[in-house]
Amino acid sequence: MTPLIEMNNISLRFGGNQALSDVSIDLYPGEVVGLLGHNGAGKSTLIKVLAGAYKADSGQIKVEGKEVQINNPQDSQRQGIETIFQTLALADNLDAVANIFLGREKRKGFQLDEDTMEVEARKVLDRLRVKIPSLRVPVSNMSGGQRQTVAIGRAVYFKARVLIMDEPTAALGPEETQKVSELIQALKAEGVGIFLISHDLHDVFDLADRVTVMKNGRVVGSARTDQVSQDDVLGMIIGGVVPPQLR
Ligand SMILES: Nc1ncnc2c1ncn2[C@@H]1O[C@H](COP(=O)(O)OP(=O)(O)OP(=O)(O)O)[C@@H](O)[C@H]1O
Ligand SMILES: [Mg+2]
Fold first, then answer.
1. CB of 130 closer than 8 Å to CB of 155
2. Is the CB of 43 under 6 A from ligand 1?
3. Secondary structure letter of residue 241 according to DSSP
4. Residues 76 and 55 sit within 8 Å (Cβ to Cβ)
5. How far is the CA of 166 from the centre of ligand 2 (A)?
6. pLDDT tens across 199-247, in order?
7. 182 within ligand 1 shell (Cβ under 6 A)
8. What's the CA gap between 44 and 27, in Å, rounded?
9. Which of 13, 17, 21, 88 for a ligand 1 pocket mutation test, highest count of atoms within 8 Å of Cβ?
C-alpha cells in the first residue's frame, strides 16, 4: 500500500534554532499516527510544514506517492490535508457556520450564500452527533468540546483525506475528550489518515496504530503501539532511548 503522506528528511531552522533536523514520517490510509515529544521537540513545527504554514529548508513531501510542493495553506488543503492547530483553531468572534467555511465561503453571485452554508454546517455537525444549540453565536461562547467539534466539522465538510490534530483534547473535560476520541475512530474507519499530537500517552495508546517520538527536532524512533509499552515510549520521550525491540 502507498502511504497517504510521506515527509522525508525535513529540516527547518528558525534563526539559530534548528527546529527540525532530517525528520522523516509517514501515514497510511485509515491510520492514526501519534506524534509525541517534550515541549519544543518540534511536533507543531513539523505538522505546520505539512499544513503549509512554514516552508522547510530542505526535504520532500509526497502525497499518495507523488512529490508535491506545499507553499501555503491552500496547497495543503488542495491535497486533502486539513489541520486543527494547537492554538487559534477557530476565529473566536465568528459563529460556527463562518468558522466552518472560513476562507472557502459559498457564494450566490457576489453575495455570501448564508442559508446554504448554515444548512450544510448543520448537516455536518449533526453527522458528528454533537449538540450545538445555535450555530449563529460567536464560537467564543461555546464549550471546549463544541469548539473542537466545529473544527473537526470543517475538516469533515471539506472531505479531509488527512487530518492533523495538534492537542485536540488538551482543553477538554473527560466527557468531551471521549467524544473527540469517538470522532477520531469514526474518521479512521472512513479511511482518513490522522496525525495526532498529544501529551496524553494514555489517549495516544488508545487511539494510535503507531507512534513517532521526537526530541530536539529529531525523530528518536517510530513503533507500532503493540510493539512498545508506555514506559518504552516514556524512555524515548525523556531520554531519547530506543527500546531494544526496535533496534
Ligand atoms: N515561529 C517560530 N519562530 C521561532 N522559533 C520557533 C517558532 N515556532 C517554533 N519555534 C521553535 O522551534 C522549536 C520547536 O517548537 P514546536 O512548537 O514545534 O514544539 P512542540 O513539539 O510543538 O512543543 P509543544 O509540545 O510545547 O507544543 C522550539 O524550540 C520553538 O521555540
Ligand atoms: Mg506544539
1. no
2. yes
3. P
4. no
5. 7
6. 889 999 999 999 999 999 999 999 999 999 999 999 999 999 999 999 8
7. no
8. 16
9. 17
Give the pLDDT confidence of 173-187 residue by residue, as tens digits. 888 888 889 989 999
Q: Is the CB of 37 under 6 A from ligand 1?
A: yes
Q: Which residues contact 169 (CB under 8 A, 6 or more apart)?
A: 148, 176, 177, 180, 181, 198, 200, 203
84 lines ligand 1 (CB under 6 A): no
- Name residue 64's amino acid: E
Question: Does ligand 1 come within 6 angstroms of the Cβ of 41?
Answer: yes
Domain parsing of the chain, residue ranges? 27-246
Which cell is 71 given? 507553499
Which amino acid is residue 5, in one-letter code? Answer: I
- Give the type of residue at 48: K
Strands (DSSP E) along 85-217, which ranges?
107-108, 111-112, 162-166, 193-197, 210-215
27-246 fold: Rossmann fold (3.40.50)
**Atom 31 in ligand 1: residue holding the nearest Cα:** 40
**Maximum distance among all Cα pairs of the chain, rounded to whole angstroms:** 63
Q: What is the DSSP string of 2-51?
A: --SEEEEEEEEEETTEEEEEEEEEEE-TT-EEEEE-STTSSHHHHHHHHH
Closest-approaching ligand to the CA atom of 19: 1
**Average pLDDT of adjacent 10-residue blocks, the chain of 247 residues:** 97 97 98 96 97 97 98 96 82 94 94 96 87 90 87 90 91 84 92 94 94 98 96 96 93
